[in-house]
Design a protein that fits this description.
The complex is a heterodimer of chains A (178) and B (456).
Chain A (H helix, E strand, L loop, with lengths): L1 E10 L2 H13 L4 E5 L7 H5 L6 H27 L12 H31 L20 E6 L4 H10 L4 E9 L2
Helix pairs in contact in A: 3-4
Chain B lengths: L5 H24 L4 H13 L7 H25 L1 H50 L9 H8 L2 H17 L11 H5 L2 H5 L6 H31 L4 H28 L12 H26 L8 H32 L2 H13 L1 H18 L9 H27 L8 H22 L12 H5 L4
Helix pairs in contact in B: 1-16, 2-4, 3-4, 4-5, 4-6, 4-10, 4-11, 4-15, 4-16, 5-16, 6-9, 9-10, 10-11, 11-12, 11-15, 12-14, 12-15, 13-14, 14-15
The chains are: A alpha+beta (178), B mainly alpha (456).
């Protein structure tokens, strides 16, 4: 077990937080994590996080859904149990295709949406009964918490954070499992 | 203030002149004599066995087959006289279709350019009614485009009325008293579908749209120099009222000016369908004009987030259009009621490539190309996607009108291309002249600051 020191700075306003993030980044300090009660627009860009790839994942899930619906309707309506619906007993996939389009649409959306949410949870390491990671319960209500790595420059960092409008600054010894 | 460049002015006037020449040529050459058509049809039939002119044969195959069948039946029944009778009828029918072509080509191009302006007018009214914060920097661009509503609408109506008075009922067969006399279904609709009431309705619609356009423009210009928001509030009020007027009149207009070319056929969501095409074409043209003016160093405060938003609307309305296209198609296909399904049968038989091709251009292509968020901010990318969308929606209008007027005698030649040139020139000239009449950015709009700082 190794211990590392971090500073927890607490803010009470998202605009103050945004300008603080920009200042801290400009001073070349490493922001480990930020806990917010709601998504703050543009925070990921200000922190310098890599752009999300969830849209690409969603597109691929949509394609999977589309293929599943095509294969599924072919099996159900053409191969396994052909039915004469609306006087169209052609039993040919392509000739019955317009009737399957709503199903294709629905399954595409269903797969894209559900798998995207599941991917998002897994990627954020969230699952049922998981112990919450946020270090301060107030970040689920109306406070914003910035976690910054400390490498022997505590006092300098604390002064900087005070300037940016942090209402609370705490030095924390964090246990890390490596 | 923006001034129209000489290059653009010359270009649009050249388009108008070339277009007029081509349209004139189209009308001059469309009157084939009975014998000409007879020899033409005979040649087409003789090509059946031969290997060449495959396309022509393909196009007319079903037609000829039907004609031959007719011939056979008639000959079997009553001998030589009725055979020549059916033959004469068929030749006259084709002769009429050939004469219809320049009229229809002109009408399709006129309607297409007009629907762009009307779509922009509706989009413009929505911006006021919803009090959007992103769009005020684009208001003058939209006002420039909507300047075409009045002339464009009058031209469409004039062509429609002229086809039933000067012409030989070349677009709307219900205008032909001879046809109506033998058609019970049209007789039942005659209280609505008659030339006088058709023209009056059209004038009322155009007057309503133009009045809204006139006053909304007047209020935004007055707002530039006023010291309170009263003009903005007035614009908001008339926009909300206009949208109610618009959705009724646009629906009725789409029945009158498009759906009635097939007077037996009807579709209850046709007004929406036409509106979706209108909106997506209009928004595409807003993006084009904005990009053009930006590339000439105007509209500095229009940033790539505004272009991004326009591209999002292009993407969204393309999907909306496809949704309505499919809703209309699937219900009719599934119900399979003869008088309804005939609309699609004609289009799939005689216009197969165009009918399904425009579905690819108008839905699949914009869907895949404009899906990526970053691409929607790249001007040339939006431009290329917009070109595809405009081509697709021109074909959409083409496939709505042509099957009813020229049947399988369609082609894409001088009448069509010169009609497009004529109306493209007229559109550019009117729109860019209107843009010179007022500063390109509104002033003192209460949402202007939000629009200037708009970012995604």
């Amino acid at each position: 077990m190794e211990t590392s020191k971090v500073i927890h700075a607490i803010y009470t306003d998202d605009d103050v937080l945004m300008s603080a993030v920009k200042k801290v980044k400009a001073e070349k300090h490493h922001i480990e994590e930020i806990y917010t009660p709601f998504p703050v627009h543009g925070l990921d860009k200000a922190m310098g996080l890599a752009p999300t790839r969830i849209a690409i994942a969603s597109f691929m899930y949509g394609c999977v859904g589309l293929i599943v619906s095509i294969v599924m309707m072919n099996y159900i309506m053409i191969e396994d149990w052909p039915q004469n619906i609306g006087g169209k007993p052609s039993f040919s996939y392509i000739e019955n295709m317009p009737a399957f389009v709503p199903i294709m649409f629905e399954l595409t959306v269903f797969f894209a949406a559900h798998l995207m949410v599941i991917t998002f949870y897994l990627r954020s390491r969230m699952w049922p009964f998981k112990k919450a990671e946020n270090p301060d319960l107030r970040t689920t209500d109306d406070h914003f918490l910035m976690e910054i790595a400390v490498n022997g420059n505590e006092s300098e960092l604390e002064n900087l954070l005070k300037e940016t409008g942090a209402v609370e600054i705490k030095l924390i010894e964090k246990e890390e499992a490596h | 203030m923006y001034t129209i460049s000489n290059k653009l002015k010359t270009f649009s006037i050249a388009l108008i002149i070339l277009g007029l020449l081509g349209v004139g040529y189209g009308f001059m050459t469309s009157h084939k004599s009975f014998e000409d058509v007879e020899t033409m049809l005979a040649e087409e039939t003789s090509h059946h066995g031969g290997g060449h002119a495959e396309e022509a044969t393909h196009e007319t195959a079903s037609h000829d087959a039907a004609a031959n069948e007719n011939h056979a039946q008639e000959t079997h029944g009553e001998g030589v006289e009725s055979h020549s009778d059916a033959h004469k009828k068929h030749v006259e029918h084709v002769q009429h279709q050939i004469a219809n072509r320049p009229w229809s080509a002109l009408y399709v191009a006129a309607f297409f350019s007009f629907m762009i302006a009307l779509g922009v007018l509706a989009f413009y009214a929505i911006q006021f009614a919803s009090q959007s914060g992103w769009s005020p920097v684009l208001f003058r661009v939209m006002e420039g485009i909507t300047a075409y509503v009045l002339p464009g609408g009058l031209i469409v109506l004039a062509i429609a009325v002229a086809s039933g008075t000067i012409g030989h009922y070349n677009i709307f067969i219900w205008m032909d008293p001879d046809v109506v006399a033998h058609d019970k279904l049209i007789q039942a609709k005659a209280s609505w579908l008659n030339l006088g009431w058709f023209a009056v309705r059209g004038l009322i619609f155009i007057a309503g749209w133009s009045l809204y356009r006139h006053f909304a423009r007047k209020f935004t210009i007055a707002q530039d120099t006023s010291d309170d928001n009263s003009n903005f509030k007035k614009a908001f009020r008339i926009s909300a009222a206009f949208l109610v007027f618009f959705i009724y009149t646009e629906s009725i207009m789409s029945w009158d000016w498009i759906m009635s070319v097939d007077p037996h056929w009807f579709s209850t969501l046709f007004g929406w369908y036409v509106f979706a095409g209108m909106a997506v074409s209009g928004i595409t043209v807003i993006a084009f004009v904005a990009l053009y003016l930006k590339s000439r160093g105007h509209l500095e405060i229009v940033n790539d987030s505004h272009i991004h938003d326009l591209a999002k609307y292009m993407f969204g309305f393309s999907i909306f259009w496809a949704y309505l296209w499919f809703s209309q198609f699937m219900l009719i296909w599934y119900a399979n009621i003869p008088e309804e399904v005939t609309y699609f049968v004609t289009r799939i038989q005689d216009y197969n490539g165009l009918f399904f091709g425009m579905l690819v251009l108008n839905f699949v292509f914009p869907f895949l190309v404009l899906m990526n968020s970053d691409y929607k901010r790249i001007p040339w990318f939006v431009f290329m996607a917009g070109i595809i969308i405009l081509v697709g929606h021109y074909i959409d209008v083409y496939v709505m009108i042509m099957p009813a007027t020229v049947g399988d005698r369609w082609a894409f030649g001088i009448p069509e291309i010169s009609s497009i040139m004529l109306f493209a020139g007229l559109f550019l000239f009117i729109v860019f002249t209107a843009l010179t009449k007022a500063p390109l950015i509104v002033k003192r709009n209460p949402f202007l600051k939000e629009s200037e700082h708009f970012h995604y």
